[in-house]
Design a protein that fits this description.
- The protein is of the alpha+beta class.
- Helix content is 25%, strand content 26%.
- It has ten helices and 22 strands.
- The longest helix has 15 residues.
- The radius of gyration is 24 Å and the shape is globular.
Length: 474
């Protein structure tokens, strides 16, 4: 999702100039040439994590789109500002009396912008509410989403793909990522595909028009389509297309972005509350928890260190947005807006002595055409993180080459496998990576490689070649 420029070899001499095409590692130059990517569209920095001048630097000061490597800034700031043990709390509150299982009035649900309030976590919260004796709710379900500022969010604005899970907007009560997992189970003999939805919101109808076909699997998602429309007080999700039976069972995740968040939450609440034997006679509305309300049930998120691991290993844009706004809220800027997240990170950077004049933040996830940073300053960020008390948590959150996350399928059967913790980034026209590599001599190296070019998706071979070159000790 971001862009960097290729580094030139420095060896024992001074910093390489901005145009060192003939001094790049040969394998990197050849791979870039084969991909038809000019060095002017590349930014690279390689340097030891402990300090010293870069061994390789190309277009290092040039502002680039970093794509998801921008998550390094958001997560590092969060680990230092909030501390790794920080958690989010979501709870039910009420002023009403509880008599023989019946809550006589309204039930309030207060959100904390929890990035990982999953379907299972929400079920545990409702189960706790039942365990505290609530069965019948005679009042309204009132959503307190006031921690974040209300904002119009268009899930189609980024790439005109509103049902992609990464296009779900932030919310103080983001239950189950406002997404639905469709498990596709093909029946070749019948020429049909069974679709199982989870969650199955009570106000959502899933219409299955997917046909089973016999050809090879390949990129099976490309032949599928989905459409979400409102029908009165309900929503209808129609899925269609052709699904190869040879693919076997697969999950298809859709973000219900065009659907208002309260509608989704209501449907999931009704589904789970009914399954738990509860009933509800009121309506859904929004409002703050009264000062004299008592807490009936509460659940706590995993610690920030685990949240950061999910964000960086799997490049979760939705969770990164939530974390970005949490930084804003915890800095006292409430209700939090994206510009408050930028201000909170700017305060942290100033206190740390990090000055990145070209830096531009949008949502902290890198899923943006506006965000930018230079390769030199991304390397400075990693150098600062290397000396930070939270370094172990940040490094452990980065994908490990050939092992897990977004690097799981890269550099297998190579010497670099298991030696590099690398955050990757991908957008149309952007291919980036940044992180740490333990070289053959046992030295930790910082590696940054950003590409912003129409052919950026073909840059992986060049990036892997750079990692191999760094591992071998230049």
């Amino acid at each position: 999702m971001r862009i960097f420029i290729l580094l030139a070899l420095g060896l024992l001499g001074p910093l390489v100039s901005a145009q060192p095409e003939d001094r790049l590692p040969a394998a990197v130059s050849q791979a870039l040439a084969a991909a038809h990517i000019p060095t002017s569209a590349v930014a690279i920095v390689v340097q030891e994590a402990g300090g010293g001048p870069p061994q390789l630097s190309l277009n290092a000061e040039q502002p680039m789109n970093p794509a998801s490597t921008m998550k390094l800034l958001t997560t590092f700031a969060a680990l230092e500002v909030l501390v790794p043990a920080y958690t989010w709390k979501t709870g039910f509150w009420s002023q009403a009396s509880l008599d023989n299982g019946t809550l006589a009035g309204d039930l309030y649900l207060r959100g904390s912008a929890d990035p990982k309030l999953t379907f299972e976590q929400f079920w545990l919260l409702l189960r706790q509410l039942r365990g505290h004796g609530v069965q019948q709710i005679n009042g309204d379900l009132v959503l307190d989403r006031g921690l974040l500022a209300p904002a119009k969010f268009d899930p189609a604005a980024f790439d005109e793909k509103p049902l992609r899970a990464y296009n779900v907007g932030p919310d103080a009560l983001l239950v189950s990522f406002k997404a639905i997992r469709l498990t596709l189970i093909p029946d070749a003999a019948a020429g049909a595909v069974r679709v199982v939805a989870e969650p199955a919101p009570a106000n959502l109808d899933v219409v299955n028009r997917i046909q089973a076909v016999g050809n090879g699997c390949g990129d099976w998602k490309e032949s599928l389509g989905a459409n979400l429309v409102r029908q009165g007080k309900r929503w209808r999700l129609t899925v269609s297309g052709r699904y190869p039976a040879s693919c076997g069972e697969h999950d298809w995740i859709l973000g219900l972005g065009p659907e208002p968040a309260p509608d989704y939450l209501r449907g999931v609440f009704e589904q789970l509350w009914s399954e738990l034997g509860g009933s509800w006679r009121g309506e859904l509305r929004e409002g703050p928890v009264p000062a004299d309300a008592r807490q009936l049930a509460a659940i706590e998120s995993p610690a920030l260190a685990e949240i950061v691991r999910d964000i960086n290993k799997y490049s979760n844009n939705v969770m990164a947005r939530q974390l970005f706004l949490t930084l804003a809220a915890e800095s006292g800027r409430r209700p939090a807006r994206p510009e408050d997240g930028e201000a909170a990170i700017a305060d942290w950077m100033q206190a740390r002595g990090l000055r990145f004049p070209e830096l531009r933040l949008d949502n902290g996830s890198g899923l943006s055409r506006r965000e930018q940073i230079s390769a030199a300053n991304l390397a400075k960020l990693l150098a600062a993180a290397w000396k930070s008390p939270v370094m172990p948590e940040l490094m452990a959150s980065l994908p490990l080459a050939a092992v897990d996350g977004t690097m799981k399928k890269r550099l297998k059967n190579s010497a670099v496998a298991g030696q590099a913790h690398i955050k990757t980034g991908t957008l149309e026209g952007v291919k980036t990576m940044a992180g740490y590599l333990l070289d053959r001599q046992g030295r930790q190296q910082i590696v940054v490689f950003l590409v912003n070019h129409a052919n950026a998706q073909a840059a992986q071979e060049a990036q892997d070649a750079l990692l191999a070159w760094v591992y071998d000790g230049h």
